[in-house]
Amino acid sequence: MAGMTSNSSLTSSIIQYVIFLVTTGAILPFIDRIGRRQLLIGGALICMFLHYTTAGVMAVHSHHVEAVNGDENLKMLLPETPGKAVIALSYIFTGIYGLTWAPTAWVYASEVFPLKYRAKGVGLSAATNWVCNFQCPLLYCLADYLQIFNFALAYFLPPSFKNITWRTYIYFGVFCTVMSIHVFFTYPETTQRTLEEVDALFDSNIHPWRSANVNTDRLTARVEEMKSGSVDGETKERFDDEERKEVA
User: Fold this and answer.
1) Domains of the chain, CATH where assigned
2) Which segments carry the region annotation Disordered (predicted)?
3) 64, β-bridge pairs
């Protein structure tokens, strides 16, 4: 679509993976300082903006063709400058994803499963990811972030680019919008909490968007109560009331 030759496409893919590797490694020491929710929500919002921007550039500057380099699934071609802009947006997207969702999603998955099912849950998450990736190589630079849906994307992207062209990026932007809303309302903050405290956090009635302000000592007390088996309905209600007052 951007008028790239096969060698240029290979070079572009190499650059993309280098960006992905560097950004993913660079953010690892800072995940605990920034917070899981900030990275996930911020990453989804920035990726949403990048997808909508890509769609806008393509909508304004692309023109219809019957095929691109013999590929009849591609029905639009971009001039050189807008094409470079789309490639740059793809690089930025890869970097943002590498800084946010790529490492944080795996960290979060290892923290949120109950202790009894944590090993099985993380194993199932990894297995699902790799099975889907085995079925579908990277088709386009934007497809990497939805690894869990790669099998479906293998069948969706070619007819999508053929029939709705640049509007495909609108769909991905909508997914990112939904992701940011979903994380905001359902993902509690797990940064700098023990696994037992995370279990206690899920067991409480604290809203996820207020979970970062929950006192760690309060969660520790709840964990000790849970270990001793003395958390009855009245005690749990008292803990919940105190925690809600703290974060209000």
Assistant:
1) 6-186 (1.20.1250.20), 195-247 (no CATH)
2) 225-248
3) 76
